[in-house]
Amino acid sequence: MKFSKIKDNDIANGIGITMSLWTQGCPHHCKGCFNGETWDFNSGKEFKKENLDYILENINKNSVQRDLSILGGEPLCPENVDGVIEVKFKEEFPNKKIYMWTGYVVENFTERQKEVFKYLDVLVDGPFQQENRNLSLTMRGSSNQRVIDMKKSLAEEK
């Protein structure tokens, strides 16, 4: 998996303060994307053990309680999905939330992409659509995107 950046204190992605992992590379190229610099699969850096260690060691830095946001780029594209699944954050912090944004739609996920379900608390799915842009929406940029409570969805087997 490649990543663009790790942002220690993010108030724009998730509820409250999160540490955000921005994956690098996106096949969707949504018109109006606010993050076009993360599209190029040839940019960014390889996500290594020391990057994960950085997240684990700094998630509570200065006594600030942060959750984790994973976005991009596209975290669930074939080039990144294995690396995202290998981010063993919940093993260390089972009570912290993980938020993820993807341009894919859950109903079309591959079996490999579905493996992230057990780690996530909130999933925002669907591509950004410029024609449906609505900045008043919580945690999403366009009205076609869905905010999915993964724990509830799994419990209800939906």
What do these coordinates show?
This protein is α/β, with parallel strands linked by helices and 158 residues long. Helices cover 18% and strands 22% of the residues. Helix 4 links the parallel strand 5 and strand 6. The protein is globular and about 40 Å long.
Q: Could you provide a short overview of the structure?
A:
This protein has 158 residues and is of the alpha/beta class. Helices cover 18% and strands 22% of the residues.
- Distance, first to last CA: 29 Å
| Largest sheet strand order | 3-1-2-4-5-6-7
- Counting helices, strands and paired strands, the structural category is alpha/beta
Beta strand count: 7
Name the assembly state.
single chain
Along the chain, the helix and strand elements come as EEEHEHHEHEEH
Task: Report the average pLDDT across residues.
Answer: 95
Tell me the strand percentage band. 15-25%
Are there runs of 5+ residues with pLDDT below 50, and where? none
Taken from the alpha-carbon principal axes, the silhouette is globular
Q: Considering DSSP H and I runs of 4 or more, what fraction of the residues is helical? A: 10-25%
